[in-house]
Specification:
The protein is mainly alpha-helical and 768 residues long. The chain contains 35 helices and no strands. Among the domains are: 36 residues, Zn(2)-C6 fungal-type DNA-binding domain (CD2-Gal4, Irregular), CATH 4.10.240; 68 residues, no CATH class; 27 residues, no CATH class; 227 residues, no CATH class; 117 residues, no CATH class. The radius of gyration is 34 Å and the shape is globular.
Length: 768
């Protein structure tokens, strides 16, 4: 086609488009007079109203459309940008309305001016007289540039704090930095004689604990294993009678500790849904399966077998599979339904004790991000809802944050969400029947304990901790000043005053606990959980102050008080584990092993075996070990037990040496006897050479001695049966260097689900 024909083709195309547009029926608008008088127009010109009044009818389509007026704020912003551009063009220093990201951390005015000057110099032509390299350099302010590039303050090392190390300048020792990535590169992760517990040891133990759990951890991504097929969700529900039995178990054992569902409204919905499971909504079905999961989780094995006629683990695995399918069906990643988010939260609780915390933390982060997308973290968003929805949003947000914080503290405490960067206030002390969907305002808050008292007090204590320096300095020191400023502004107006320190917080909590009935199971649980949590906070505050203070500022009296705090942590846990009132709540509390108290006591007893509270400390730890029935729970010699046993035996060796020097009998405490018996008397476990030497068990005992040395490794492996493919070196881990003989050797890898939920992270923001 010639170029001369091109304009004709273009005109033809335009005409064709115009005719197509003309063929489309145009919307007929009311005439101008009817629009002004705001009366109905029959849209026939002249219209009936104008004809009746004799007025001139002007169709609205004949009036040129006025351009929409721009917002005054928009015009103002444009003018400000224009003026800023002129200032930059003439090299005038100023503070811009929106500082560029590169200026963060430096003084706004000087940094922006320097950046503008540098940009102007760089953009100038090379032949320009004033654009020399020196001019470019002079455009950047040296002091501000140094401030912007200064090293970021590093969080305090919690492991050093627990061992009462001191580094006044940085809070860290030169030989063991706090950067976990650096530690992994240079630290083999073995606990030698005289070593303090550190992050690399815990990481090594987790690696070996879950090295064969790849498939089960991938289920967290809501994809079934390759050998399983999709299930029919309607058939996966139990019979109606068992549905209501599971619902009642949930109300008795789970709901009082979580309060993320509103019983009066949800129970009515469940009754309606059970009658027609084939047509149940996807979010409600996912919520039902998650309730089944946590209800079964809360039952002991024997009770589950008696009530449902199935082993607990088999029943739980079936409901978890159905819950994953239901969550995928309701598109939980895109959904804004609160039932869907609640179902995800309850499902994550049900898998917590059997999953690698590193995998679980990723999924808990997904739940947190979904809640943030829906505005649960923002009090401004919650205030737009009615009283019931707003309060349930607060309860669910705090439960998610505390759960995520708990998962993070098990392994990597610095990624926790418990920080002062959001403003959702703690839940109110209200019963469920006081919250109704039709009410716009909240009822009067009760001063006495309610059915939500456990959740309320847990959230209030966590709220105090997330603004505390002893917590934030272990996570992100830059948040400390922000938290202090925020704390200073809190408590103003109608809100209650904020406690200034832990001592004032403890007094306030004890005043409220005096109103509790110790014979009430939930209130008994609240009393001793709160006291144990407060003791834990006092202990962490002491460790933080000891870490950041100089030796001249440290006093023995403070250390003695810290021992008392650690003893209180363990004693409160023993009370909860031994009371018949907490039988229905043990599913929740069993996963909160007081490892923080154990670690501080054992490392202090190793360094100060003659401490005046040493006998009491050994007795308290022995009582707790028995209360938790740890010997039975250590069904296999897993890597986590290796670390725990090393801490116990190193402390006892120091105590034993001191007693012998003073000519006193060295009768081992019960916890030491249990650990020795577990190692020496286990015929069905995998014991490899180096176990007794690692624990120094060569002293006389009533048990048959275990062989020591590399020559006995093959014999031990042969006696253990087919669980050994080859002899394991005496270092404790099959693929570790032979020279690393500091660890006890595990390992049968069928892990008991108890230990993965222990408090190995030891962060100051524990979820009770």
């Amino acid at each position: 086609m010639s170029t001369a024909d091109a304009p004709d083709a273009t005109n033809a195309a335009v005409a064709e488009l115009g005719s197509a547009a003309a063929a489309k029926p145009q919307r007929v608008l009311a005439c101008l007079l009817c629009q002004q008088r705001k009366i109905k127009c029959n849209r026939q010109f002249p219209c009936s109203n104008c004809t009746r009044t004799g007025a001139h009818c002007v169709p609205a389509s004949l009036v040129p459309r006025q351009r929409r007026r721009r917002f005054p704020e928009r015009e103002l912003l444009d003018r400000i940008r224009h003026y800023e551009a002129l200032l930059r063009q003439h090299g005038v220093s100023f503070e811009p309305l929106h500082p560029p990201p590169a200026a963060a951390g430096a003084a706004p005015t000087a940094a922006v001016a320097g950046a503008a000057a540098a940009a102007e110099a760089l953009s100038a032509p090379l032949g320009d007289a004033g654009s020399s390299p020196n001019d470019v350099k002079s455009g950047v302010s040296s002091p501000n540039w140094a401030a912007a590039t200064a090293p970021r303050p590093r969080p305090a090392n919690l492991w050093h704090a627990l061992s009462e190390k001191t580094s006044p300048d940085t809070g860290q020792d030169d030989d063991d930095g706090d950067d976990d990535d650096d530690d992994e590169a240079v630290d083999a992760g073995y606990l030698h004689d005289g070593d303090d517990l550190r992050a690399a040891v815990i990481k090594k133990a987790w690696d070996y604990t879950y090295r064969s759990a790849t498939e089960s951890n991938q289920q967290l991504l809501f994809g079934s294993p390759a050998s399983a097929s999709d299930v029919e969700l309607t058939a996966a529900h139990p019979p109606q009678a068992k549905i209501f039995r599971l619902w009642q178990i949930y109300l008795d054992n789970v709901n009082p500790l979580l309060k993320v569902t509103h019983t009066p409204t949800l129970q009515a919905r469940i009754i309606d849904a059970v009658g027609d499971l084939a047509n149940i909504s996807a979010p409600l079905e996912a919520l039902l399966f998650s309730i089944y999961c946590v209800a079964v989780l809360s039952l002991p094995d024997d009770q589950c077998q008696a009530v449902f006629g199935s082993p607990k683990q088999a029943l739980l695995a079936g409901y978890q599979l159905a819950c994953r399918q239901a969550l995928s069906k309701c598109r939980f990643l895109q959904s804004g339904d609160p039932d869907c988010l609640t179902a995800l939260y309850l499902y994550l609780i049900s898998v917590r004790s059997m999953m690698d915390p590193r995998s679980l933390s990723s999924m808990s982060a997904v739940a947190i991000r979904i809640a943030q997308r829906l505005g649960y973290h923002s009090e401004a968003s919650n205030a737009k809802c009615n009283a019931l929805d707003a309060e349930m949003r607060r309860r669910l947000w705090w439960s998610l944050v505390i759960f995520d914080n708990r998962v993070c503290e098990i392994f990597h405490y610095k990624t926790a969400t418990l920080s002062p960067t959001w403003d959702c206030r703690p839940p109110l002390n209200l019963n469920d029947f006081e919250l109704r969907a039709e009410t716009k305002s909240l009822p009067q808050v009760s001063e006495r304990p309610t059915e939500a008292f456990f959740v309320v007090l847990r959230s209030e204590l966590s709220d105090f901790v997330r603004h505390s320096a002893f917590h934030l300095d272990f996570i992100d020191p830059l948040l400390t000043s922000f938290a202090q400023t925020k704390m200073a502004t809190r408590g103003s107006g109608s809100s209650p005053p904020t406690p200034r320190d832990l001592a004032e917080l403890q007094r306030n909590v004890e005043e409220r606990l005096r109103l509790c009935d110790p014979q009430n199971p939930l209130q008994f649980m609240t009393i001793w959980t709160a006291r144990g949590y407060l003791a834990r906070c006092f202990l962490l505050e002491h460790c933080w102050k000891h870490l950041t203070s100089s030796p001249s500022q440290q006093a023995d009296g403070h250390s003695a008080a810290a021992v008392g705090y650690a003893l209180s942590v363990v004693q409160c846990d023993t009370r909860l584990m031994t009371s018949p009132l907490t039988k229905g709540f043990l599913w929740y509390h069993e996963s909160f092993f007081p490892f923080l108290g154990y670690t501080y006591l054992l490392q202090r007893l190793r360094k100060r075996p003659a401490d005046e509270q040493a006998d009491l400390a050994w007795e308290v730890m022995s009582d707790n070990y028995e209360a938790r029935n740890m010997t039975a729970k250590f069904s296999y010699m897993e890597p986590i037990f290796v670390v725990f046993a090393r801490l116990v035996m190193m402390a006892w060796e120091a105590r034993q040496s001191m007693l012998r020097q003073h000519g006193r009998p060295a009768e081992p405490p019960r916890i030491v006897a249990y650990v020795k018996h577990k190692i020496q008397g286990s015929t069905d476990m995998t014991l490899i050479s180096g176990a007794t030497s690692a624990l120094n068990l060569a002293e006389p005992s009533t048990s048959m001695p275990v062989g020591i040395g590399a020559n006995t490794a093959a014999a031990t492996a042969a006696a253990a049966g087919p669980s050994f493919a080859a002899p394991v070196p005496p270092c404790g881990y099959p693929d570790a260097p032979v020279g690393q003989a500091a660890m006890i050797s595990p390992m049968a890898m069928d892990m008991d689900p108890f230990w993965p939920a222990m408090d190995w992270g030891l962060v100051p923001n524990r979820q009770w």
